[in-house]
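Teaching assistant here, posting this on the class forum so everyone can see the example we discussed in section. The complex has two components, and the goal was to see what a joint structure prediction looks like when all of them are supplied at once.
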Amino acid sequence: MNEGTALLFDEFATRYRGGEGPDVLEYLERAGDDREALAALLDRYLQAVPTREPSEEEVVLMQARLESEPALLVLRRRRTLTREAVVSALMTALGLDPAKSDKVGGYYHDLEVGNLDPKGVDRSIWDVLADVFKANAQGLAGVRPEPPAAPAVAYMREPTGLQAKLESAAAPSAAPEPAESDEIDRLFTAGA
Amino acid sequence: MHDARDAEDTRLLEASQFGLLVESYYGVIIDRCRAKVRNDAGAIDVAHEVVARLLAELKRGRRYRVPFRVVVHQVVKWKAQEHFQSVKVSEELERWLWRASTESDESLEADAGFEALLEGLSELEQSVIRFHYGDDDLDFQEIARRLEKTPNAVHQIHYRALEKMRKDAA
């Protein structure tokens, strides 16, 4: 183990006991060829000291996995917000034409269920969502539920709840295709 | 160091608040899985298995005679091992969980807690690690003053201690 790795470990431990949630993978990357040594030390340290509080994103991420639901949907439910309330917040914060709220709702639905590439979504949308949810919505938007294992019996005809959700999510967008792209399209897809 | 945490865990267990109990460990479970698996997708997969197993055991009535945090760390260890070996370690894990729920054996807690961090270190190294990473939370300057050493000597002792800890963990 080189001295730089010892310094990295010390920096991680200082931040951890200060109540931060330093990113383990980021530290391992910084350790370069010495990442095995740092990983062993971090693992040992994490077992020994009091655990930190999980972040909201981590809670949502794990709940989404346990419930087989898209993470953004789980986040919204944890905030006890309706989809309409989120859309309304987007309309107001971005000063959008009220006549286009259905279109924004369609795009938001697609984003929430994982049917819209988050990479295409404009920074301003993420900023509003971060404010509404008080969490990193952008980081969670790309997290979709794990697909279920193939059914054990070939004659099983009814889709499972999760299969139905995924099929629904994979269905064509509810948002109507405009003849010309407008500001809403740009906000939700321009970066794609 | 862990007293407050263990007391809160006991309260949540007695109130059958299993979801909240396990949720409070999500952070460290994900951190340890990242340290062991070293990629995010794989780490989250393992963390999910750990959480699902912990919840399943609690919901079917399993209670432990060791602090719950010890159980969490053991399940992380076994599930990460399973991930790498591509073999089920369920029998060994089941045996450990059964022992933890029926025996008050201190060896079950051997890997957990701050004292485990100090194993194999000299007295001086233990002092430096305890002062710096323990409840005292002292910087190297202050440790040097307390141990009547130069700051550079404390840095050297610290480095040697970390090297031993790493070798022991490997």
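For the discussion questions: Residues 149-159 of chain A have pLDDT under 50 and may be disordered. Residues 56-141 of chain A form one domain. Think about how each of these relates to the inputs above.
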